[in-house]
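[Primary structure, fold]
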Amino acid sequence: MSWTCQYCGKDTKWIDVDYLVGTDHLQCVLENSKMKTKLKITNPEKINSKNICLDKSIIEITYMGLNASVNADNETYTLYKFIANNHTKLLDNVIFEIHTNIINNKVQFNIWREGGVELNSLPVNVIRDRNELINRMIAEVKKA
């Protein structure tokens, strides 16, 4: 049996059973049941940043807007779109799409590179922590 909370991804092996629902933190379960089904990033333009990395590369992240789209089942959805580029590799742009639908306290996080798209999911708390989100984006750009 895995002792990992499905909501936050943290280990729950040493947590008192009174604070667990199955293997999930009681607090995570309660927060998830109260949480709305749509993610709202307040002031997403504050994620715009020019980041100087330890290797002296410069990664710039720019908010492109809230976009609406239609999936294969003809259902509409919305997503926040960001573009990031590494100034040392002028033509390497990476596009990030953060979907607004929350499912099990996670949102879909797509990463578009020259070779195609990588579909991921991130916990909502990572998206709400601007510094963590920016660091994740920088790490993905550095992979390119």
